Records
---
Amino acid sequence: MVISPVILNLDSVYLSDEQFYQLCQNNQELKFERNAHGELTIMSPVGGESGNRESELMIDLGIWNRQTQLGYTFSSSTIFKLPNGGDRSPDVAWIQRERWENLTPEQRRKFPPIAPDFVIELRSATDQLEPLRQKMWEYLDAGVKLGWLINPQQQQVQIYHLQKPVELRNLPTELSGEDILPGFRLSLSLY
């Protein structure tokens, strides 16, 4: 049985940014997101396989980032306040150093009001594909420059760029960080 994340439509209830932040702080055992339309999602926890895959992706990006010192990496526990109104938590995210350092200490402590430059979403067994695709488009709309949607269930990865068509690749493949993450390469074998 596949259990999808719970989506709550809050058309009749408005949560300010501070109220959303407090909701998350008061319910730390739950993982919340809001899309650009204000719909609140309670995310399902992932199993061991997805958690391990996500961790490995974070390690690969983190090693590259430590070597280049070009920016900052973020885990799936980080919620970003996107310019289009969404509050999103990608599985893996990266922000260019200068952009992150331009935020105030207060902005960095709470939900940073910034779109990452790069995101990875890893489809887990409990995720439906279409909501993840919509989330990737929302990232691009918010200013994310490059995103990878890794879909182990179909042995594919979708590559999202600003102002370019989505590129679909079958696994195994090697991905390039292009000019967003210069020199970063990720080898994805069969999942």
---
Amino acid sequence: MAKAKQLKVTLIKSVIGQKPEKVATVRSLGLKKISSSNVLADNEAIRGMVASVSHLVKVEEI
């Protein structure tokens, strides 16, 4: 079986001054501080969340 694809999401900008919806999205991705990273499953829900905060995060495919 093929290994499921994953995404490594890293917070590169602060959420200070962002709308509450964007802050909640970043928190739901499991990111708290600048340079914090989280490895998540590559699916449509995660991709949509990352797209909505793309100006705050860096994404790498694993």
